């Protein structure tokens, strides 16, 4: 059974939690990693789940080892993030949701779950042009953001003007498991679906999530220019994880997908 070890007691007032589990485009992870760095967020709790890979994470300049799944906090902003250094299975995500459910209810936490929707034709277009990575000559179209909700999460989306999806779809992987848990347990939640490059880390899509959802919902001012200025560095840093994920079962990768009639 999973559990959470709180390492720094903090008080919150109806906080928002941003989920950053690795998924297609690594968009959620880029969002959360940027928030932790830009806001100098502090480690709030370590997450222990039997379904997680047995691994110990560490950071530069610090001898301490930590779990690969952690919660960071900016208490003054009533903001938390879920950061992960490893791909997470739906079972691990469900275990995490179950062990934190009581705390969600007690603190009135509203989670923002992030899923990338692969751009249609992106993979085929890159292959046709013989491209292996992004560049100035093959700039992707701007990402659009759509919002889903469970319970009172709908009011948050209405307040900040995030539109509903135009067509049917499905969110699978760990992020889908978290949203399914919220629906089954009647917990408020928001699902954010953004167009992403299906092959490579997508800092531009992460910027859209920050500017159009995280900032207006939380009221936190985040320097998103750094995501553009450091896009190449971010892509290189995340590429190894993206390669690891491409070799895993699809169930371990969070992603949104379109559903069509008679498919």
Automatic annotation (TrEMBL):
Pfam families: PAC2. One of its GO terms (cellular component) is proteasome complex. Keywords: Proteasome. It comes from the Archaea. Coiled coil: none annotated. This is Proteasome assembly chaperone family protein. It comes from Halobaculum litoreum.
């Amino acid at each position: 059974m999973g559990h959470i070890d709180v390492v720094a007691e903090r008080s919150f007032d109806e906080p928002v939690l941003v989920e950053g589990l690795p998924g297609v485009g690594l968009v959620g992870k880029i969002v959360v990693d940027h928030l932790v760095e830009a806001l100098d967020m502090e480690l709030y709790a370590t997450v222990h789940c039997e379904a997680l890979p047995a691994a110990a994470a560490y950071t530069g300049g610090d001898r301490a080892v930590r779990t690969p799944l952690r919660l960071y906090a900016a208490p003054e902003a009533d903001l938390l993030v879920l950061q992960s250094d490893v791909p997470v299975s739906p079972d691990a995500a469900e275990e995490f949701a179950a062990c934190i459910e009581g705390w969600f209810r007690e603190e009135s936490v509203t989670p923002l779950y992030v899923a990338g929707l692969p751009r249609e034709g992106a993979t085929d277009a890159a292959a046709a042009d013989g491209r292996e990575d992004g560049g100035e000559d093959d700039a992707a179209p701007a990402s659009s953001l759509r919002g889903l909700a469970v319970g009172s999460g709908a009011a948050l989306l209405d307040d900040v003007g995030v539109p509903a999806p135009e067509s049917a779809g499905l969110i699978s992987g760990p992020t889908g498991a978290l949203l399914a848990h919220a629906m089954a347990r009647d917990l408020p939640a928001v699902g954010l679906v953004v167009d992403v490059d299906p092959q490579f880390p997508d800092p531009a899509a992460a910027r859209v999530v920050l500017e159009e959802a995280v900032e207006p919902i939380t009221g936190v001012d985040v320097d998103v220019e750094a995501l553009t200025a450091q896009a190449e560095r971010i892509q290189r840093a995340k590429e190894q994880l993206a390669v690891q994920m491409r070799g895993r079962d699809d169930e371990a990768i969070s992603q949104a997908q379109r559903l069509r009639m008679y498919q």
